[in-house]
């Protein structure tokens, strides 16, 4: 049977409308899909532990429950540590607030003395800016609250995904034709390995960065060094964007609690050094998995994830695009897209090669 080929503009229009519909569905069903996405990644991460427990003779249900309890204990310990540090921080909040108000007042006087802008106009400008940002802040808060409201569903989803793992895998094999079974098996195996490698490496990197941040801030005598160091490491999990926010917090704390600017310069130098170690040693050797995403795609996909699903979308964007790259690399028609997502930069321009070949053919004729 002859396959009918449609013109490019028609194919592009269909693809564009398909992408629009896909994004619309993701946005509309965010409250359902976000916990499912987190649960899927957690289930893949815990799958190895569940298999080990089953090998020693523990029934499947109890293996899943024990694995989830261990994960919950680790998460609860982290939240307890952060909450105790935040409680200590709140005790000195009035003093820090008064100091910050004094710095703001000095800044207003400086602007008036050097630029001639009176304090009333400055206050009006700041008020208008805050009013314009209320919508953005409200959206962020709603995203956080929405995530917290469904976080109790995640353990249920994780348990059921691990329980019905064989059913889900068999469905994926049966939904495709038999000649594609080897390709499906390779995609599933590489996807599982990529997610496990990414998450375990990311957690290890976060722990090391948290320790380095805390030590650097303690040496510089910045208040609440451990709290700021841990928060900075957690923010660092957001590629490229989180690091910028992480460095602003200790600088702000040093500005509020200390005189002069030597501590702030020390914080900038220390964090730049830590970022150098992180980007050139930790990430390539610890976080790197079988799939590498280039910096341009990473930044764009993180921003798109944030626009679509807020903070949750930022965290989910990188592993999601890594799974897409695995699929693209296994399908012939999508291999160029897989190369576009990857970080292997070609040394030769294919366009120039084709152009030279065409010129040689014309000269020969």
Overview of the molecule:
With 365 residues, this protein is mostly helical. Among the domains are: 196-286, no CATH class; 291-346, no CATH class. Helix content is 84%, strand content 0%. The protein contains 14 helices and no strands. Helix 8 (181-219) packs antiparallel against helix 11 and helix 12 runs antiparallel to helix 13. The longest helix has 39 residues, at 181-219. It is globular and about 75 Å long. Mean pLDDT is 77; it is low at 133-141.
Q: Can you give keywords for this protein?
A:
single chain; 365 residues; mainly alpha; 14 helices; 84% helix
Number of helices: 14
- The 3D shape can be described as globular
Tell me the total number of β-strands.
Answer: 0
Q: What Rg do the Cα atoms give?
A: 26 Å
SSE layout and pairing:
Elements: H1 8-28, H2 30-55, H3 60-91, H4 93-115, H5 119-150, H6 153-163, H7 165-175, H8 181-219, H9 225-235, H10 241-257, H11 262-287, H12 295-330, H13 335-341, H14 350-364
Helix pairs in contact: 2-3, 2-6, 2-12, 3-6, 5-12, 8-9, 8-11, 8-12, 9-10, 10-11, 12-13
Summed up:
The protein is mostly helical and 365 residues long. It is 84% helix and 0% strand.
